[in-house]
Amino acid sequence: MRLLLRKIRVAITPRRWLLKTRLANGAVVFGKNRAGFGGRGIYVFRDLIEPEFQHLEEYLEPTGVFVDIGANTGIYTIKAAQHYSKNGGVVVAIEPFLDVLNILNHSIQVNGFTNVRLRNFCAGDRTGTGTLWRNFKKPNLFSLVRRDEQASCLPTLVVALDDLMIWEGLNRLDYLKIDVEGAEQQVLLGAKETIEKFRPIIQMEVSIRDVAVDLPDYSVFQAPESPNRIYIPDEHPKIELPGQLGWIQTPGVK
Q: Residue 145 has what DSSP assignment?
């Protein structure tokens, strides 16, 4: 019944309004009531929107560094920031579309977080300039990869994660979330040294493009019907958690 009522609320709420959602850990997330703008799904489904989101805090230590590449309105950013808020953890949120980033900033201000760093650019295989394609006019589909023949575009700064980690002065990376609508391979190429050095858990959307990933001594898991894969170092203390949750190990996927 609650699910139905939320869907009705979305349907009758003006499209220009922000939807406000309180997560299970008490944090608040805002998002526009428009398809692709990051407000509707989290409002309707709450923490059940994705299995990885539902169980995110089980994968996180009390403190750490969480990097959210392709943050959109920042549901992962906000949940991780709340989790880390009392123990000095840091969240770096990367979102190239300024309109959406401003909404994420609003959520951060309302929650009173001081542990989130917002960065307005794309992540890629090298640091330089690039083109952000506004695929299907939906920010959650915007990408360095053009998937819509009618898409307009914006010039954008592109930063390799290997460079960003140095700029930010970060000496650890615990969880790397990548949702970049087809540009995953570019992000991984620009993060090669960081991944080799810190061996984070990596969450990556694979529904747009199956990515060939070279991650030695990592195991790969996927929750049933999830668009994401989770890559966990074989020596990581959380390596047993996906199996306990009923997620499927995908042998041969690298």
A: S
Q: pLDDT value at position 253?
A: 57
Strands 175-178, 201-205: pairing is parallel
Q: Which residue intervals of the chain are DSSP H helices?
A: 2-12, 40-45, 51-54, 56-59, 75-84, 98-111, 161-168, 184-190, 192-198, 241-244
Domains and CATH numbers, the chain: 51-249 (3.40.50.150)
Contacts of 224 (CB under 8 A, 6+ apart): 51, 246, 247, 248
pLDDT tens digits for range 224-234: 999 999 999 99
Beta bridge partners of 21: 29
pLDDT score recorded for residue 214? 85
**Residue 145, token pair as written in the block:** 């990869």
Which residue in 231, 197, 203 sits closest to 217, CA to CA?
A: 231
Provide, for the chain, the percentages of residues in helix, strand and coil under a 3-state DSSP scheme, each rounded to the nearest 5: 35, 25, 40
8-state DSSP, 170: -
